[in-house]
Amino acid sequence: MPDASYPEELLYHAEHDWARIEGEQATLGITWYAQDSLGEVVFYDPPEVGAAIVKDSAYAEIESVKAASEVIAPLSGETIEVNEALADAPERINEDPYGEGWLVKVKLDDPAEAEALLAAVDYRKLLEGD
Amino acid sequence: MNGAALRRTPLHERHAELGAKLVSFAGWEMPVSYEGIREEHMAVRTHAGMFDVSHMGEVEVEGPDALAFLQRVLSNDVAAIEVGGAQYSCLCDEGGGVLDDLIAYRLGGDRCLIVTNCANHEADLAWLGRWSRGFDVAVRDVADRYAMLAVQGPHAPQIVARALDVELPPRMRVAAARIGGRPALVCGTGYTGEDGVELLIDPEVTAAVWAELLDAGVVPCGLGARETLRLEACFHLHGNDLGPERNPVEAGLGWCCAEATGFVGAEAIAKARAEGPAERLAPLRIEGAGIPRQGNPVLVGDGEVGMVTSGTFSPSLEVGIGMAYLRADLAEPGTEVEIDVRGKRRAARIASKPLYRSPSHYRKER
Hints:
The structure holds two protein chains of two kinds.
Chain A: E1 11-13, E2 17-22, E3 25-30, H1 32-38, E4 41-45, E5 52-53, E6 58-64, E7 68-72, E8 77-82, H2 92-95, E9 104-108, H3 120-128
Antiparallel strand pairs in A: 1-2, 2-3, 3-9, 4-6, 5-8, 6-7, 8-9
Chain B: H1 12-17, E1 21-25, E2 28-33, H2 37-46, E3 49-52, E4 57-62, H3 66-73, E5 86-92, E6 98-108, E7 111-116, H4 121-131, E8 138-141, E9 147-152, H5 156-164, E10 174-179, E11 182-187, E12 196-201, H6 206-215, E13 219-221, H7 223-232, H8 266-275, E14 279-286, E15 297-300, E16 303-314, E17 319-327, E18 336-341, E19 344-350
Parallel strand pairs in B: 3-13
Antiparallel strand pairs in B: 1-2, 3-9, 4-7, 4-8, 5-6, 6-7, 9-12, 10-11, 11-12, 14-17, 14-19, 15-16, 15-18, 16-17, 18-19
């Protein structure tokens, strides 16, 4: 597994999720801390393409050997793509949480929602306060 | 997390050095995994792993009436344990409910050691104390006298024998030994479905023994792998699959109940056996996606027919597995059911025990 990292170009949600915003779209996933806490991911249950996801609410489920965990949406939008490759290789969420382990792509309802998210430095501070 | 009040085993610093994830477990701070549950699980299935299980409790029962007393409180036929023997038993209440499940080791003619589940240790002691009245026996809490290491896996016996220079007892036997220069017990028991031993050793030499085994290539394993291994082997976990509200017959433990001995709870258990239980504990496998978890309802059609008591992802079988209490007529291998996993119905099939059988487990000789 890789070492802890929190890329500067991403925005973070306190429930340990990240968003990579590109115009009116965003790619979402879970942070290094989240995958490390869960342990080896063995199952990813994505939303359906077209499903609406709502900021601060659960939109998917990830299971590790020891526990099931809901994934909280950092932003609201319509699911336009899910990472199908995770069906056969859910361990990519552990191996590359910000790259091949991405979870969904969404068309954002309101890009201004991003203002409530944390920069990497602030998310790190939140983790240190844990 | 408030770790201040948690108890620590003699290996706490070793676990921290190895980068273990530590969790609170029944009042103890215990390692849940080091490198990863899957890796540790597979190390035990294919090589050798070691678990710090020093949180387990030990009770010594000694005196002229030691066997008669244990015969009164334990479900199995204690009189059948030879000196140096070990036997699995339930500790039952008057209604036949299971207060704990444990192994009794006969160390001498009138001396036995029982190893309790840590969450039940204090209650077990109180129960044993209460029932010991009228018997010429001493019941001693010796949990602080022992640390416990389970070394399990197909290569575990040979590695332990060589690294610690001890003679190993056969399965379900116990041998006195010297480990780290101190008196110790080597037990041919385990909770993984693999060959291996459990070592009861002096807490002061535990760190040194751990280091010896680590140098000999034994893989440190946490409670996470202990859980996946025991569930594949269909061993019960008290608090999940067993409890005071369940009797051994429902739990599939009728084989360790010798009602003729007249133990506490025997009458209720004899009745349960004669009437046949309404529900029985059965292992199950998910067919396809999904992982059953404790508390998930078991469904047939629209009817709820039972409840999952333990569930996990099986690293050996790479599928969701579990155990559930369900209507006795459905608790047969092959029965198709569905598990309600947080609102999603997952197809599952009742399996036979064990869910995973190790090729090395039933080897008689070393």
